Amino acid sequence: MHYLDEIKMKGQKANPFFCLMGIVPVTYGDGKARLSMTVRDDMKNGEGWLQGGIYTALGDEAIALAIYTLLNEGETIATITCTTHYIRGIQEGMINADGEVVKKGRQMIYAEATITDANHGTLLARCTASFIVRS
Predict the structure, then answer these.
(1) Is 92 helix (H, G, I), strand (E, B) or coil?
(2) Which of 60, 62, 23, 25 is nearest to 43 (CA)?
(3) Torsions phi, psi for 124 (to 5 deg)
(4) What is the 3 state secondary structure string of 69-88?
(5) pLDDT band at 1 (very low <50, low <70, confident <90, very high)
(6) Chain centroid to CA 61
(7) How far apart are CA 86 and CA 51, in angstroms?
(8) Against a cut of 0.85, is the pTM above it?
(9) Tens digit of each residue's pLDDT (9 = 90 or more) over 66-114
């Protein structure tokens, strides 16, 4: 079964990492995707802020879901690079990751994600990534 079909049928349960992190697929289509997640205490660093790797993981997943909406039958992807620019920390609440494909070629895809505070829209981080397309 295609990943997008599984997301439609199972939602969060289609991706074990979504279940682990409490990530919810909100919207996806036409090279874009939004994921949401509640910040939990077990996701924080020693200073009490959301740990930076969580931003990267959430951004990477939002980008991947956005890419899947543009793939042809039989194509899969793998992350080659993912860079996260941390802008502001968060200690509690809900965050959104909005992934968007910037350019899709035959073998490479470039995409970006923004991670924001869901309540205030404050920009928290920005991810840029490149993926390889495999047939």
Answers:
(1) coil
(2) 23
(3) -105, -40
(4) CCCCCCCEEEEEEEEEEECC
(5) low
(6) 3
(7) 11
(8) yes
(9) 999 999 999 999 999 999 999 999 999 999 999 999 999 999 999 999 9
